[in-house]
Each structure stands twice: as C-alpha cells, then as structure tokens.
Amino acid sequence: MKIEKVGVVGCGLMGSGIAEVVAKAEFDVVVCEMNEQFAEAGRNRIDKSLSRAVDKGKLESADRDVVLDRLSFSTDLAALADCDLVIEAIVEDIEAKNELFSTLDGLCGPEAIFASNTSSLTITDMAAATSRPGRVVGLHFFNPVPVMKLVEVVRTIATRDDVFDTAFSFARNLGKQPIAAKDNSGFVVNLLLVPYMLDAIRHLDRGVASVEDIDRAMTLGLGYPMGPFTLSDFVGIDTLCRISEIMFDEYREERYAPPPLLKRMVSMGRYGRKSGQGFYDWSEDPPKPLAL
Ligand code: CAA
Ligand code: NAD
Fold it and tell me: Name one Pfam family in it (predicted).
C-alpha cells in the first residue's frame, strides 16, 4: 500500500509535532483543525519548532520553507478526502474520536487507512465506528514528537496484516523506531508511566516532599530527563486527567484512579505548560513551583 498524502486531524501539542515530522519525511500533509484560530496556532507551533532546528544548525532555512510548503491547513474535514492515511490527534475523548472517524469513513476513499494517536483509549472502539475496521490502527507518538524516537504501532483483532505492515513501515520512514503493541488501554509505555505520574501526585498530597524536590529526586537519583511534575505539565494536566479516568474505567485498579488534586487542577484550568500554569508557573524562567 502506498502512502503519499497524509491527513492530520487536531494540531495541538501532538498533532503539530506529527504534522511536522510527516512533512519533514517528504509526505504531503493536510492538517485539519476546529477553527481558523487553532489552525493558525498549530501552524505557528510547527514554524517555531522548525525555526529552532534552523537556529541549531540542524535544518537549512530553505528546507524549512520546503517543509512548510508541504503542509496545508483546513477547517473542513472534506479536505482529507484524498488522503491515503489520516492520523487523528484530537482531544482524548471516545465520543469525539468516534464521531470523527465515522465522518471520515464517509469522506475518504475505501482504501484509506485511519490511525489514532490516543494515549489510553482502545483502537478497537474507534475501528468499530467505521465500516473499515481492518484498516484502522494505532500510531502512538511521544511528546515532543520531533525528538522522541518511539512510535507504538497498535493492531486490533480486526486490523489486516498488510495495513499493520504499512503503518509500521510508515513510522520507520519518519525516522522513528516502531514497536508492535496489542490494543490494550495504555499500550506499553502508558501502562507503566501513568501509575508512576499519578503516584507522584498522591505522594505530594501526602506531604512526602515538595514538587521541586520530588522532581529533583527523580532526575538526580534516577537520571530521568524530567521529574514527574515537570513531565505532567509537559503532557498537559487535562490530558493526563482524561487518560487516568479512561484507564481507571478500563482496569478498575486504584493505581490508575485520578488523584483529587489532579481533578482540582483541571477545574482551575491549570493545564500545565500549554496554559502557562500547572504544577509550575511557566511564565518564570526557570519555571517556579506553585502553591498547591
Ligand atoms: N520540539 C522540537 N525539538 C525539541 C523540543 C520540542 N518541543 N524540545 C526539545 N527539543 C530538542 C532540542 O532542540 C534539543 O535538540 P539538540 O540536542 O539537537 O540540540 C533536544 O531536544 C534537547 O532539548 P533541550 O536541550 O532544550 O532540553 P532537554 O535536554 O531537557 O531535553 C526533552 C528536552 C527531550 C523534552 C527531555 O527533557 C525529555 O526527554 N523529557 C522527557 C520527555 C518524555 O518523557 N516524553 C514522553 C511523554 S509521555 C507521552 O508522550 C505519551 C502519552 O501518551 C502521554
Ligand atoms: P491538545 O489539547 O494539545 O490538542 C488537541 C487539538 O485537537 C486541539 O488543538 C483541538 O482544537 C483539536 N481538536 C479537538 N477536536 C477536534 C476535531 N473534532 N477536529 C479537529 N480538531 C480537533 O492535545 P494533545 O496533547 O495534542 O493530545 C492529542 C491526542 O494525543 C490525545 O488523544 C492524547 O491523549 C494523545 N497524546 C498526547 C500526548 C501528550 O503528551 N500530550 C502524548 C501522546 C499522545
């Protein structure tokens, strides 16, 4: 199966990174967002990331322009009609994702492959919302997409072998190192990572140590690139909370349950780095831990 034109739906934190790496790998990319304002914000995020690569001498400025030219932006899903592969990176909500895939099912050609970047929902549920379950896979990228090498390629009990192989080769063509994962909520990485991040919040609430010291402990003690609170702010507090609710609903194990503090932060709009405040105040340099 030949992939030439790729659609990316949702151009937030992850969609912008995915669109960037796909365009860098010389595919034509159509990005679809909810409205002009979000599309513009997504385009700016990609522009900034490419400019950063230029400043660091990792990309020629002429090549940045070529990559940007390969990207087009729309607020109409019909613009994805002739894509060979559509990757969704919209909000972590099964109803929104099912509605999207059901609409795309009626718009795209019968051969088109649909992929989800979900962190915790099951691909099977989305596949069942289409008339092409055999052509639906998971392509789970990691944040920040231009840097992180892993892609989890997820197959359901319905995914066709040739579709899975095409998705796996596609991830390799992006310069990533794919692994095969079964369609269980959290795949491999989040199954292990999410309880760790939630435990850190629970221990913080119990007064074990401060935000800063827990982060310092995990970076200096274990060599992790970021501590759990910096990472939570980086992933997005709203997204982490949704992931936690979904995984708790699936496994009914306490370690996936959303800690009350996490829910309160969502209520207050403290979504992490993307909103300016989470566990840290990101308007300060270095970011300053906030009172919780
Ligand atoms: N976009 C593009 N490039 C970026 C970037 C971004 N947002 N952030 C950093 N980089 C690049 C820098 O340009 C730099 O490149 P060079 O080495 O070539 O100069 C490199 O990454 C390192 O960046 P910095 O020196 O600025 O900072 P750092 O050393 O602290 O690294 C980091 C930044 C790569 C993000 C590192 O802190 C890290 O690996 N953090 C952990 C990230 C992680 O765990 N991600 C997974 C989240 S979970 C997930 O994604 C799954 C889910 O479903 C929730
Ligand atoms: P985000 O909030 O930064 O971006 C989501 C974007 O989708 C927003 O710009 C929103 O306007 C757009 N959107 C929502 N509904 C849409 C629709 N129907 N059509 C078009 N656009 C729509 O979220 P994110 O962090 O980029 O997460 C996106 C997906 O990627 C989620 O499923 C999340 O679980 C997953 N994911 C997130 C991370 C992470 O670290 N944040 C890592 C891996 C996977």
Answer: 3HCDH
- To the query of whether residue 152 is one of the catalytic residues in this protein, the response is yes
pLDDT for the residue numbered 1: 85
Answer whether the bond into residue 146 is a cis peptide, omega within 30°: no
- Measure the CA–CA gap between 179 and 168, rounded to whole angstroms: 8
CATH 3.40.50.720 residue ranges in the chain?
Answer: 5-182
Q: Rounded to the nearest whole angstrom, what is the distance from the C-alpha of residue 227 to the centroid of ligand 2? A: 23
Q: Could you tell me the pLDDT band of residue 160, with boundaries at 50, 70 and 90?
A: very high
Q: Report the relative pairing of strands 113-116 and 85-88 from DSSP bridges.
A: parallel
Residue 9 confidence (pLDDT) above 90: yes
Answer whether 282's CB lies under 8 Å from 275's CB.
Answer: no
- Ligand 1 atom 8: residue of nearest CA: 144
Ligand 2 nearest atom to the CA of residue 116, by list position: 32
Superfamily of domain 189-280, CATH level 4: N-(1-d-carboxylethyl)-l-norvaline Dehydrogenase; domain 2 (1.10.1040.10)
The structure tokens 């992490």 sit at: 272
Q: Write the CATH number of the domain with boundaries 5-182.
A: 3.40.50.720
Residue 144: asked if its preceding bond is cis (omega within 30°), the reply is yes
User: What span, in angstroms and rounded, lies between the C-alpha atoms of 145 and 32?
Assistant: 18
User: Could you tell me if 86 and 80 are in contact, meaning their C-beta atoms sit under 8 angstroms apart?
Assistant: yes
Q: Is the CB of 142 under 6 A from ligand 1?
A: yes
Read off the tokens for 165.
Answer: 């192989």
Residues 152, 185, 232, 244: which is the catalytic one?
152
The candidate with the shortest Cα–Cα distance to 104, out of 191, 185, 10, is 10
Look up 203 and say whether it is catalytic: no
